[in-house]
Amino acid sequence: MMNKMIAASHSIFILILVLLLLSGCATQPYGSFIQNPSSIYSQYSKVMADNVTAQIVRLYPAANTQFNLRHEVNDPFGKALIENLRLEGFAVQETIQQSIQQQIFAAPNQPDTESQKGLALSYIIDQSGDLYHVKLMIDDMRLSRAFAAQADSIHPAGLWVRKE
Fold first, then answer.
1. What confidence tens digit (pLDDT) does each residue in 59-98 have?
2. Interval 103-138: pLDDT, tens
3. β-strands 66-69, 119-128: how paired?
4. pTM for the whole thing?
5. What string of H, E and C letters represents the secondary structure of 118-145?
6. How many Å apart are CA 35 and CA 128, to the nearest integer?
7. CB distance 80 to 59 below 8 Å
8. Whole-angstrom distance, CA of residue 123 vs CA of residue 106
9. Which of 12, 36, 94, 135 counts the highest number of beta carbons within 10 A?
10. How many whole angstroms separate alpha carbon 101 and alpha carbon 152?
11. Which residues touch 137 (CB under 8 Å, ≥6 apart)?
């Protein structure tokens, strides 16, 4: 009898472990991937966020558009982007990171009516030497642009690339 209880508890433990691992694999990494940012990076982030905001303003009507972030924002670029979008008149719904218990015990297939009202927004920003790359995902559309850092300033290193 005791062996059956131990075997059952091991099965449940393994199932929970597999579910946790699968939920970790299902999430895509978004946000900033800048390793050891320099002291001037926050200034670079503001310039890049201003440029990204200007492109979004060209593509979407401000007063009629809501963006729903797919990931938590905790970097200077993301914070500047959210602030810029709100100043331009866009509604921005930020995500709240759930604990592991909330993710496990969340009701499956529960419709999220709040996030259905707007466009899904996420970004990836990374660096290779003095070249920064910003990739923006708005629903099914992808926008990307490179920025070159030179002499304590940063400038676009090409045109916007748009993929739908």
1. 999 999 999 999 999 999 999 999 999 999 999 999 876 5
2. 566 555 555 544 458 999 999 999 998 999 999 999
3. parallel
4. 0.72
5. CEEEEEEEEEECCEEEEEEEECCEEEEE
6. 10
7. no
8. 26
9. 135
10. 45
11. 30, 70, 120, 121, 122, 123, 124, 143
